[in-house]
């Protein structure tokens, strides 16, 4: 979206405070993401306002999202909201706790992340680009729950024909990794930053072998290799190479919808829908200045990973992809959750 300098300077926030609300606690990835962008955004907005991150956790992020939905009339630019895949998944699944509507929010920036699936050294030695020689193994996987971000790996494992028994109730992916290290699990995935920090040393010792990343989306919505792991195949590549795994059809459409919502567009900054175009333009111009400034890529890579930061029209398109799912694909996931895990969403 092209924004003129005149439009960008028409609105000033000098002396004002911008509330940057996220529906999570002060710990975790969303807080890290929001606190990374908050000072940069404050410097780039006209008048250099103070951007303060506010935390509204509860009900798996739906409580804070419902609160933002109730404040859609605050369109003067002093309120912004940051979601996560944990906010998008209940929306896609039709969770009855959801009272928010993404179509009524105005995206201005979308951030991606990635993830890597890995096996112990002995099993990883059998991986040759497909999972055909690994289908007879029995796997244990430490999971936070089938309707959390773990939906993406659990559905991927099913599509690959793997016999995976999830151990539900781990409090975070770090606990899943510890199960792997103790030999209590023999398949795991970690988000990119956690993989680099905590799993790469295991790989270096021969204790873990990466088999694929989830991949990333290009500007046309096509899954390509993760820029943080360009030499690693994507799940799509491994699926195409594995007998019985299809990259078209209802299962694939369902997996991609949740991959986009959980990883390719995991976190988004929104303005209320009532925000006039001049406010949207000011934010887009400020965020374009942030992501194009000298040193931003290195700073972002160190904190967020080597992923695109989509601004303006690109953020709108990414959000459209991340918050829509074909009815038949949604029903496929609901039926799968019920059949495999006894989970009913109603």
Automatic annotation (TrEMBL):
InterPro entries linked: BUG, Bug_dom1
Coiled-coil annotated spans: none
Listed Gene3D superfamilies: Bordetella uptake gene, domain 1, Periplasmic binding protein-like II
Domain of life of the source: Bacteria
Family under the similarity heading: Belongs to the UPF0065 (bug) family.
Protein known as: Tricarboxylate transporter
Organism encoding this protein: Thetidibacter halocola
Organism ancestry: Bacteria, Pseudomonadati, Pseudomonadota, Alphaproteobacteria, Rhodobacterales
């Amino acid at each position: 979206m092209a924004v003129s300098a005149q439009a960008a300077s028409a609105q000033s926030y000098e002396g004002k405070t911008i509330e940057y609300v996220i529906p999570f606690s002060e710990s975790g990835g969303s807080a890290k993401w929001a606190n990374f962008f908050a000072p940069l955004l404050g410097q780039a907005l006209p008048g250099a306002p103070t951007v303060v991150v506010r935390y509204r956790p509860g009900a798996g992020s739906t409580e804070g999202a419902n609160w933002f939905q109730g404040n859609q009339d605050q369109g003067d630019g002093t309120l912004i909201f940051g979601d996560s895949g944990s906010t998008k998944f209940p929306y896609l699944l039709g969770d009855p706790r959801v009272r928010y509507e993404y179509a009524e929010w105005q995206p201005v920036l979308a951030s991606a992340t990635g993830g890597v699936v890995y096996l112990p050294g002995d099993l990883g030695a059998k991986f040759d680009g497909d999972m055909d020689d690994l289908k007879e193994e029995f796997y244990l996987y430490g999971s936070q729950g089938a309707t959390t971000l773990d939906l993406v790996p659990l559905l991927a494992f099913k599509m690959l024909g793997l016999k995976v028994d999830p151990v539900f109730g781990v409090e975070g992916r770090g606990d899943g990794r510890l199960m792997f290290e103790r030999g209590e699990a023999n398949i795991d995935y970690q988000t990119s930053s956690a993989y680099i920090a905590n799993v790469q040393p295991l790989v270096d010792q021969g204790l873990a072998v990466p088999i694929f990343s989830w991949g990333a989306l290009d500007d046309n919505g096509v899954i390509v290799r993760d820029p943080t792991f360009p030499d690693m195949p994507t799940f799509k590549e491994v699926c195409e190479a594995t007998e019985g795994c299809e990259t078209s059809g209802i299962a694939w459409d369902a997996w991609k919808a949740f991959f986009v919502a959980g990883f390719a567009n995991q976190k988004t900054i929104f303005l209320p829908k009532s925000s006039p175009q001049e406010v949207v333009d000011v934010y887009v111009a400020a965020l374009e200045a942030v992501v194009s400034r000298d040193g931003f890529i290195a700073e972002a890579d160190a904190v967020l990973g080597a992923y695109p930061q989509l601004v303006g029209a690109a953020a709108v398109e990414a959000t459209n992809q991340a918050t829509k799912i074909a009815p038949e694909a949604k029903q496929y996931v609901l039926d799968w959750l019920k059949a495999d895990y006894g989970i009913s969403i109603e």
